[in-house]
Amino acid sequence: MGHGGVRERPNRHAWRACRGQPLVGSNPTPSATTASAPAGRSSPPSTILRPAVWTRVRLQPMTPNLWAAVDGYICDHLVASEPALDAALAASAAAGLPAISVTPNQGKLLALLVQLCSARAILEIGTLGGYSTIWMARAMGPGGRVVTVEADARCVDVARANLVSAGLSDVVEVRLGAALETLPEIAGDGSGPFDFVFIDADKANNSEYFDGFAIGVVRS
Ligand SMILES: C[S@@+](CC[C@H](N)C(=O)[O-])C[C@H]1O[C@@H](n2cnc3c(N)ncnc32)[C@H](O)[C@@H]1O
Predict the structure, then answer these.
(1) Is residue 64 exposed (0-12), middle (13-18) or buried (19+ Cβ within 10 Å)?
(2) I need a labelling partner for 204 at 20 to 30 A (CA). Which of 20, 33, 37, 116 fits?
(3) What is the mean pLDDT of residues 132-154?
(4) Which atom of ligand 1 is nearest the CA belonging to 100?
(5) Does residue 151 have its Cβ closer than 6 Å to ligand 1?
(6) pLDDT for 142 beyond 50
């Protein structure tokens, strides 16, 4: 998932460490945060209108920590804990996989997108431990299927076990192999067309995955 505007890529799971931390500047002055609008000034710069009060907002440069704190805030308020998903993350961590899966709010967005386009055939490039796979597979309607491609055999083993635990092994196929080699096989073996493609592997090949493959296998 992209993190537009962030120069350094934050650890996607840093949101956990940032949960509950304030999102505003570390030391805003009281006058700066609760200043009343000056008489006759209808829209002062960098302010949000609250009932009878102008609150001045301190704009901060985006940093990995701030990004993670915003993620954490959204996760805390909008994404309920789900045992199958939490278990997949825990099993992935226990197996030593890196904490680079989508965050819960990103998973929920994926599920929403899957539902919005009534996807029944999903392709994922970059499985890791199957966390995003589970979000998408659970959002599909009956009869749906997911094909997910992963180059690392250790990840494939963990993902398959996680999918069994989540009760999704019959609707998700995990294919081992480098995507540039595996995708042409998928294009040729009748697995497609797909309603939804999630590209989340090695970013250097994104344009190849998108232009060279995804466009050709998405249902028109
Ligand atoms: C960011 S992780 C995927 C996270 C997963 N989509 C999730 O949110 O739970 C990227 C994964 O892509 C895999 N990967 C990297 N290069 C690949 C390639 N050329 N072909 C297939 N998988 C690749 C990595 O092994 C890693 O597991």
Answers:
(1) middle
(2) 116
(3) 97
(4) 1
(5) yes
(6) yes
Q: DSSP for 134-202, please give it.
A: HHHHHHS-TT-EEEEEES-HHHHHHHHHHHHHTT-TTTEEEEES-HHHHHHHHHHTT---BSEEEE-S-
Q: Are residues 102 and 65 in the same domain?
A: no
Asked whether residue 66 is domain-assigned, the answer is yes
Question: Which residue among 56, 78, 100 closes a domain?
Answer: 78
Q: Is the CB of 149 within 6 Å of ligand 1?
A: yes
| Domain final position from 29, 54, 78 | 78
Q: Say whether both 29 and 91 belong to one domain.
A: no
Tell me the pTM: 0.77
| Selected residue with higher pLDDT from 191 and 35 | 191
Ligand 1 atom closest to Cα of residue 152: 25
Residue 168: give its domain's CATH number: 3.40.50.150
First to last CA, the chain: 23
Q: Please give the structure tokens belonging to residue 5.
A: 């505007």
* pLDDT at residue 155, rounded to an integer: 98
pLDDT at 144 over 60: yes
Q: Across-strand partners of 139?
A: none
H or E element in which residue 74 lies: helix 64-78
Domain holding 212, by residue range, is 83-217
